[in-house]
């Protein structure tokens, strides 16, 4: 009984130490993760030309602006330095940059972006990083909650182990000179 409870405490301690290590490593390498995400986003935007056969690139370009309400990497004018701009030859950003919250037709012309209802000020790089940090906060809080529960489990197990009598598991009863 006590040996199994001791194993339980040791296993909880190992899992707890693993969680702490993961949180520390995540904190230490967060800058590298941010850099890799930024490089990936830039690569996706730079490869997009509107007619790519690369379905992943087309999906990403449609997803980022629509879900995160952004346009380009830093803002809408980023598109002027891409293959999309050279290929489209119409001085516009992709239609996924449209802000559909107003329920009116949208064009993505860069001549008068404020009048065309596109997401002009929010770049997708910033919005992706913001979303990533938000998700990481959920992960960290979940890990901390599990760590607190594990600490409580270890504490309870230690209390049970410490309060348990050290003598034999049972005592002989002697009644009237005979053993019962």
From TrEMBL:
Q: Where in the cell is it found?
A: Membrane
Which GO CC terms are listed, alphabetically?
plasma membrane
- Which Pfam family, any one of them, does this sequence belong to? Tetraspanin
Task: Give the transmembrane region(s).
Answer: 6-29, 135-155
SUPFAM superfamilies this protein is in?
Tetraspanin
Q: Which UniProt keywords are listed?
A: Membrane, Transmembrane, Transmembrane helix
Q: Per UniProt, what is the membrane topology?
A: Multi-pass membrane protein
Q: Does the keyword Iron apply?
A: no
Q: Transmembrane helix among the record's keywords?
A: yes
Q: Which family does it belong to?
A: Belongs to the tetraspanin (TM4SF) family.
Q: What is this protein called?
A: Tetraspanin
UniProt source species: Gasterosteus aculeatus aculeatus
Please name the taxonomic classification of the source: Eukaryota, Metazoa, Chordata, Craniata, Vertebrata
